[in-house]
User: Which sequence fits this backbone?
């Protein structure tokens, strides 16, 4: 069973077999096999053949497999899709999406390839990356462009470059973009995934940045080194107290629902649908199935 | 005959004698009073103010009256930097001495130079904990007529105590010594820390020579080896290459895979039931094993747990944990890096211990018996949890028994850590090439693809499952890994036995056969 | 298909394989030079994997120099396929030359 959460997405260069073959063992929720920025222009063909073979043969266990392809306006993007779609990764991440039209074009291409190979449509999820000012401006319609889109992400490094500013540790220049992306995700009930934290030796900095990302509504974060996974999971995981309260709420809800009662009071607080949904989400993050209790 | 693990052991080997098959980790020791006699200490007398100093190593060796067929012992505290063993053997060879039994606590890559002396008959028998590289390959190909005897550190101490190894001459390198032979490894330019493996040698050797590159004014402090056991002292220019003796390379690995395995192992320890106040702990110096210490250190701080003692090969990482008061004491039989020597010298809770106190099974209780948790690396492990740390996947001798079986048997929780495959070679096997540590001593195997608990430890499995760890049946994991790598071709061996693996109690746990070329 | 030019793929990194493809005269057959740290255990299977990849492209005559660093089967076939496609100049989705 794949995990139903995306706290971490581990980037792995698609040209590195040693790392790709171990993609499923680090405990990340998602592994991001990269054909784009981490692969040299001269190795694009090698990387996509390798990633294709690896997805076919490697057991990534319950880690979600996502492939980041090159932009389809580069000489590589369409071929990436032709190689990768037939091996059916769980998701494809699209760099530098600027308009709704950009995404629709890719989805149409995917459907064409699926048709050619007799693969059912709609199983591959699409994760647009917002990496330009125009993308940020159009993020609401991008996020809602197609039902296949179930997460949207920010590419911090490229976005600051596009804005002509320097990426700082406090992410000051990205504040608006991050919040706009989160809001677009929330409006469409999809995941919002934060950019990588580049300094792999700064555990404390990573924790602070992740705590902020969680506070403003991100549901997960990309990582460039497996060492970062635990810290991020730790931040996104609910606390024992949150879990305790959530169990209480969901239990009470189930008991009341069995008697046909939708809204009720618990410890003097009104419990309605949104509260129950939040509690369910907490249990989901904690890997707790209420029926097991 | 077959031993209890189903390994084919000959009843008798020419030049070695009758072999006693391995019966189980504690079967023989249950008796309490052992049948083997202890060797008496040599009775000698010296007159006041006699001079022990010799002009040269050669002079010292000549004074010891070397004869054909003698047994000479060394320690391996100088590791890959050792410059003494090969030099001594070449001196003996030049003196026309042959048929020597070489009994070194271990042999490293610094000892590839011994190969010609085996070929010309200067050396005809070897006892060692480990053998590597060219020497291991040459022995695996059959250059010795009498098989090499592989011993654990505790097993070696036992063998010396009971006279199975009868040392005629112990040659001991020291980084500091005085004219009477008081000596240590804790100070000097070639400092290597503890000299724990030699302490038993000098006590039981007929004669001993201290070799130092740092002759200090009397008395040499600390007195790790005492003058009453020393016949001769010689100063040489160098006992070895300090950069290879104490390389300071025991830093925590940066390999994501080793770190991942270490982190999983630390989670196992945390939820094992043994991670509590006053626990005792040992980790090796290698990649994933040492990294476990890093995660345990974090967990100890987080949970406010302090331990009793750390044991074994001591790294600067252990020293840091001692200095942070996470443990009360370090028992140091062997030091792994430069920073350790100064701690050994200056911290009274950092204690140098002889190998016999460390791990000898034939006494009133060695330190490994008091161990709660040990983390051990492996070359191969099989579905019965038997561990190989001596032969490579190609069948050549290339590792060391070390304290593996000593600590695994003594510890309440023995955690084996390894990647499920290296390069393309599966590490989890149906049957390991060579057994060094019996599966009964290993409680849990931690790999990046899952944690396997020895079925004889159901309580542990229950606790780990309850903690949500990824527990898998070792047979399933073995099949899965074979699926990833493909099934390797079987290594072909001849019938010739090139090595005998002695268990710590002196019984034979396995033999190593010649690799078919 | 006929190999007309040299090409290579892969790296010297651990778990990878560096493959060099060279044209040979017709009728030479497949000359495969394999260097691998796991030759004893996997030499036969690696050669089989290489040959399977050559079969896919119906290559009869070629010289291959393979420097293996313990690559898994999926990597071996990927590297050989990449090198062959490059040598045949039929690789797609690359920078226009």
Assistant:
């Amino acid at each position: 069973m794949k995990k139903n959460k995306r706290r971490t997405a581990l980037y792995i260069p698609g040209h590195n077999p040693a790392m790709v073959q171990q993609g499923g063992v680090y405990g990340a929720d998602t592994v991001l096999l990269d054909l784009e920025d981490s692969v040299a222009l001269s190795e694009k063909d090698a990387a996509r053949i390798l990633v294709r073979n690896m997805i076919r043969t490697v057991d990534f266990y319950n880690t979600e497999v996502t492939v980041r392809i090159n932009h389809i306006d580069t000489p590589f993007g369409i071929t990436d899709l032709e190689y990768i779609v037939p091996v059916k990764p769980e998701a494809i991440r699209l760099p530098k999406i600027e308009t709704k039209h950009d995404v629709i074009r890719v989805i149409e291409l995917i459907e064409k390839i699926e048709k050619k190979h007799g693969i059912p449509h709609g199983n591959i999820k699409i994760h647009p990356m917002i990496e330009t000012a125009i993308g940020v401006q159009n993020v609401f319609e991008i996020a809602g462009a197609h039902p296949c889109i179930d997460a949207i992400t920010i590419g911090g490094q490229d976005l600051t470059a596009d804005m002509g500013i320097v990426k700082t540790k406090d992410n000051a220049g990205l504040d608006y973009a991050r919040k706009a992306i989160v809001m677009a995700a929330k409006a469409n009930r999809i995941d919002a995934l934060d950019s990588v934290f580049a300094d792999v030796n700064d555990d404390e900095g990573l924790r602070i940045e992740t705590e902020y990302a969680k506070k403003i509504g991100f549901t997960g974060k990309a990582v460039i080194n497996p060492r970062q996974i635990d810290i991020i999971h730790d931040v996104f995981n609910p606390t024992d107290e949150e879990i305790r309260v959530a169990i209480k709420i969901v239990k009470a809800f189930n008991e009341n629902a069995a008697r046909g009662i939708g809204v009720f009071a618990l410890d003097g607080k009104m419990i309605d649908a949104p509260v129950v949904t939040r509690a369910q989400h907490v249990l989901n993050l904690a890997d707790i199935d209420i029926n097991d209790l | 005959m077959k031993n209890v693990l189903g390994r084919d052991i000959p009843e008798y080997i020419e030049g070695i004698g009758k072999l006693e098959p391995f019966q189980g980790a504690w079967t023989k020791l249950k008796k309490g009073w052992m049948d083997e006699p202890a060797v008496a200490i040599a009775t000698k007398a010296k007159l006041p103010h006699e001079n022990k100093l010799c002009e040269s190593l050669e002079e010292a060796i000549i004074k010891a009256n070397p004869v054909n067929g003698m047994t000479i012992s060394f320690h391996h505290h100088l590791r890959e930097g050792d410059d003494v063993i090969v030099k001594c053997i070449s001196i003996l060879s030049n003196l026309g001495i042959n048929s020597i039994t070489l009994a070194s606590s271990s042999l490293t890559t610094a000892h590839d130079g011994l190969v010609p002396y085996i070929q010309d008959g200067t050396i005809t028998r070897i006892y060692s904990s480990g053998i590597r590289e060219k020497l291991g390959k040459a022995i695996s190909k059959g250059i010795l007529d009498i098989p090499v005897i592989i011993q654990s550190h505790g097993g070696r101490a036992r063998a010396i105590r009971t006279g199975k190894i009868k040392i005629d001459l112990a040659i001991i390198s020291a980084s500091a010594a005085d004219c009477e032979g008081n000596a240590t490894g804790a100070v000097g330019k070639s400092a290597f820390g503890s000299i724990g493996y030699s302490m038993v040698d000098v006590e039981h050797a007929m004669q001993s020579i201290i070799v130092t590159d740092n002759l200090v004014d009397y008395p040499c402090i600390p007195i790790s080896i005492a003058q009453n056991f020393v016949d001769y002292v010689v100063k040489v220019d160098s006992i070895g290459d300090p950069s290879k003796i104490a390389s300071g390379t025991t830093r925590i690995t940066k390999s994501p895979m080793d770190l991942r395995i270490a982190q999983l192992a630390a989670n196992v320890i945390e939820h094992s039931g043994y991670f509590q106040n006053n626990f005792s702990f040992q980790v090796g110096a290698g990649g994933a094993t040492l990294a476990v210490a890093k995660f345990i250190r974090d967990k100890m701080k987080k949970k406010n747990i302090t331990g009793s003692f750390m044991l074994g090969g001591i790294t600067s990482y252990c020293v840091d944990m001692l200095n942070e008061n996470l443990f009360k004491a370090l028992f140091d039989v062997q030091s792994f890096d430069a920073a350790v020597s100064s701690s050994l010298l200056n911290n009274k809770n950092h204690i140098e211990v002889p190998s016999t106190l460390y791990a000898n099974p034939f006494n009133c209780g060695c330190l490994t018996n008091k161990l709660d948790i040990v983390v051990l690396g492996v070359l191969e492990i099989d579905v019965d949890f038997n561990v190989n740390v001596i032969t490579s996947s190609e069948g050549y001798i290339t590792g060391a028994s070390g304290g593996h079986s000593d600590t695994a048997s003594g510890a309440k929780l023995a955690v084996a850590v390894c990647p499920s495959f290296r390069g393309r070679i599966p590490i989890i096997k149906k049957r390991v090439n060579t057994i060094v540590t019996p599966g009964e001593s290993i409680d849990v195997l931690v790999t990046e693809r899952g944690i396997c608990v020895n079925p004889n430890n159901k309580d542990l499995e229950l606790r780990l499952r309850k903690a949500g760890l990824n527990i898998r049946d070792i047979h399933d994991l073995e099949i899965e890994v074979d699926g990833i790598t493909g099934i390797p071709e079987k290594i072909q061996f001849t019938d010739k036995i090139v090595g005998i693996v002695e268990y710590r109690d002196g019984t034979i746990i396995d033999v190593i056969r010649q690799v078919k070329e | 298909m006929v190999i007309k030019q040299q090409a290579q793929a892969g790296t010297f990194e651990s778990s990878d394989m560096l493959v060099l493809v060279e044209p040979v005269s017709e009728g030479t057959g497949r000359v495969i030079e394999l260097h691998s740290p796991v030759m004893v255990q996997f030499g036969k299977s690696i050669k089989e994997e290489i040959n399977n990849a050559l079969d896919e492209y119906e290559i009869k005559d070629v010289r291959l120099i393979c420097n293996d660093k313990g690559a898994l089967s999926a990597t071996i076939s990927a590297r050989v396929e990449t090198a062959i496609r490059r040598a045949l100049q039929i690789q797609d989705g690359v920078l226009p030359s």
Q: What stands out?
A: Chain C has one domain: 7-87. The beta strands of chain C are 7-9, 17-22, 30-35, 62-68. Residues 39-56 of chain C form the longest helix (18 residues). The longest strand of chain C covers residues 62-68.
